[in-house]
Structure formats: C-alpha cells, structure tokens
Amino acid sequence: MNIEDHPTVRRYREASLRPGEALPEKLDPEWVRKLVLEAGADDVGVAPVSSPVLDKYRQNILTLLPEAKTCISVICRMNPISVRSPYRQLYELEYHHMYAEVDHVARRAAMRFLDHDIAAVDCCSSYPMNMENWPGNGMWWVAHKPVAEAAGRGRMGLNHLLVHERFGAFIALATVVIDRELAGYDQPIRYDPCVKCMLCVTSCPVGALNADGHFNSIACTTHSYRLKYGGFTDWVESVVSSRKVADYRRRVTDQETVLTWQALAVGTSYMCTNCMAVCPGGEDVIGPYADNPALYRETVARRLQDREETIYIVKGADPDGYVQKRFPHKKVKYVSHGVRAKTAGSFFDNLHIMFQRERSKGLDATFHFTLTGEEPLERTVRIHDRKIEVSSGLQGHADVRVRADSRTWLQIAAKERNPLAAMLTGKFRLSGPARLFKAFVACFPS
C-alpha cells in the first residue's frame, strides 16, 4: 500500500489543509503563563535555555529535548502550617500531596502545549528515575531550583532551598521544557528573599547548614533521606549481614523496620524538614516573624529543636559530636551513608560532596592519585584551610602520592578491601607520610 492511501494519512493531510489559528513564531509569554496557571500552577516563570544561570545544566536539558528553547518553572505552594508541625504525619502528607500535585500540573501543561503542536517535556519533580546514575548528578535531568532562579521566581536561601518572593520556601517545583522561543522572558530577581534569620542553621539537627553558606549535603541526606537512596542501601545491608533475628533487632528497631515498610508501601519519607519549616522568607509568610521574632522562634523553631527523635549520622563525620552537644536530648544512631562510587571518575567528581571540613582542621597537604587498570586517570587533591580542591592531572608538589589499580582503589574506598593487603599484591602503593594519608581518609568517613 502507498502510505498516502492510508486512511490515517489522508485524514492528516486533510486536516493540515484546513485553515487554523497559527501561533506566532515567538510565543507570547503571557499566553504561556496563562496556559500553565490554568493547568493548576500557583505561579509560573519563564527562562530561555540559553540563560547563563543554566550553563551547568543546559546539556542535560538538551538531552531531554534537543530542540529545547524555553524552560518553564512550575510552582505549587505548600501549606506552611502542616510543614511546620513537629508531627511527621502532617508534614509527610503535605510533601506527598504536593510533589505529586506539581508533577500532575506539569504534565497537564505539557499536554496542552502538545495540543498546539508545541513539543513539550514535563520533567519529574517528586522522584528521580535515572537510578542507574546513582550516585551522582545524573538522577535528575533538570535542576528545578536553578530554573526557577533563572525564571525570576526567587533565589536560593541560606537553607539551600529556593525562597519564592511570595510563598517563601513552602513550594514544590517542576519544569516544563518546550521547543519554542518566547517574545520575552522573566529576569532573575535582584533582591534576596532570605532574611538571614539563621533559624535554618540553628534548627538543622546535623549542623549541615552554616552561617557562611557552607552546606554539608552528605550529612543532610544521611539523616533526612534515611529511608531513601543510600539509607535504604544501608538498611538492606543490615538485613543481609545480620546472623539471626536477634542480631537484626539489635541493629534495627521495630519502629525503624515499620518506617521502612511505610516508605515502601506509602511513599518515601523525610526524617527532617526543619530548613523549610522554620524559614520566614516570602511575602505571604513573613508576617509572624516580622511582627515578633522572639515569639516566632519559640512557637515554630523551638518546637522542632526540642523534638525528641533519632538522628542518623556517620561515625567520625562532622555531625558526630555536634549533635550530642547541640541537641543532647536527641538520640544519635551511627549508620553508613550508603554512597559508593561506581567509577574512579565519579569518586573524584563527588569528593567535594563527601568532604567533612571540620575533620580537616590543621591539614594542609597535596595528594597525587595515579590510577591504572580498567580506568586509568590522574587527579590532584588539595586540602587546606578546611577546603578541598580536586583537579585533573598531577598539579604542583605532592606531599603524598597514591598509585593503585582503579578497581582496587574503589574497593578500598568502599571498605571492601584492606589497603595493607592490597599493598602486598602491589595493586596499591603509597609514597609520603602515612599520617597525612590517614588524615586524608578521616575527611571522608562513610
């Protein structure tokens, strides 16, 4: 059969001949906003894919939609009263509802763009799908907070959340990417909605947030994401390594087992949302703090700070000691963060995330790594002034030189292989003071 004779093709040709209302070459931004608002969003912002704010993320966006021209930030507001509650069932319900809702809104908007022959992709907000990229940045293909910043919807606060001009931190974000340019775009806002009240810093149970802007992301995720990602990996390993039921019960309480079941059956949960809950930024939520900061601290922040709960930390990491001193009424439980690099390249790419700066006090050294075998590479790691710098190649003078088979190095980093035993096989060699290498290892407890 000639394809042109097929009934479907004939109807398609006939429809294309019928006159219709053609959209302009560059879309009206107000028309775009209205379409997304009618799909259920509480606020909408638009930014070009070419925005400098999106430089780090552009390639991922183009991977999803090679013809992408515009990113649309989709925002749904949360109920601040529920998020501020010290009772998990309230803030968890709000999270589950709103992350699902913003994904539904983004999908409805994408489908309406398709009705106008505009190619559109709704990008997942509530949960990453690319788990084959774990651990690493490839789980989410679009970073919603930078998109929202580029689209003028707010700025990143000290709590490392996007603080919206009106709704503050109490928002759920998604992104719709389309293949059309707009006649005009929103610009990043010029002021910072974050009021620098420091409540997120003083309320973080693991000390992950700091007044100087430093964010200990692995400390945050080890506790708050205990029922997700690496935390779930650690729980599975507790099951596997338990010799019998009594041994498992010593490792995992009945409550923790039931919480894990709940996360699997109902939806993954957060162990902490304090950074969002205490934030007073945003026009709609600033009132109680602006009117009486002391009362706000007592009625919002203090309730969360005083809550009795279990805090999950890695032994020897920066929160170890901080939690016991800052929140002596909270129970500390030592766990693994469950993060293991699958390649030597990803090990060094994510080293800054794993770095515990307080454990590096007094350390001023340069380390040269030469890996051979399956994945040959050279990296320089410089640690000084509680900072870490990782660069390709062997740069400058090395205080310590490490030469290892790449597979062996990953096994040593994952504590699957003893470095002394690896030395005997010749697959791991160390040149320089052993104390410096020991100090290096102490900066990355797992």
Short overview:
This protein is an alpha+beta fold and 446 residues long.
Overview of the molecule:
The protein is α+β, with helices and mostly antiparallel strands. The chain folds into 3 domains: 28-178, NADH Oxidase; 199-334, no CATH class; 344-442, Nonspecific Lipid-transfer Protein, Chain A, CATH 3.30.1050. Helices cover 39% and strands 16% of the residues. It is globular, with a radius of gyration of 25 Å.
Task: Give me some keywords for this one.
446 residues; alpha+beta; NADH Oxidase; Nonspecific Lipid-transfer Protein, Chain A; 5-stranded mixed beta sheet; 4-stranded antiparallel beta sheet; globular
Ends distance: 64 Å
Query: Whole-number average pLDDT?
Result: 92
Placed side by side, the strands forming the largest sheet appear as: 11-10-9-12-13
Question: How many strands, which pairing sense, and closed or not: the largest β-sheet?
Answer: 5 strands, mixed
**CATH topology assignment of the largest domain:** NADH Oxidase
Class per helix and strand makeup:
alpha+beta
Backbone CA Rg: 25 Å
| Strand element count | 13
In the CATH hierarchy, the architecture of the largest domain is 3-Layer(aba) Sandwich
Given this structure, which CATH class of the largest domain is correct?
Answer: Alpha Beta
CA-based shape: globular
The number of helical segments is 20
Helix content: 25-40%
Strand content: 15-25%
Low-confidence stretches: none
Give the domain tally: 3
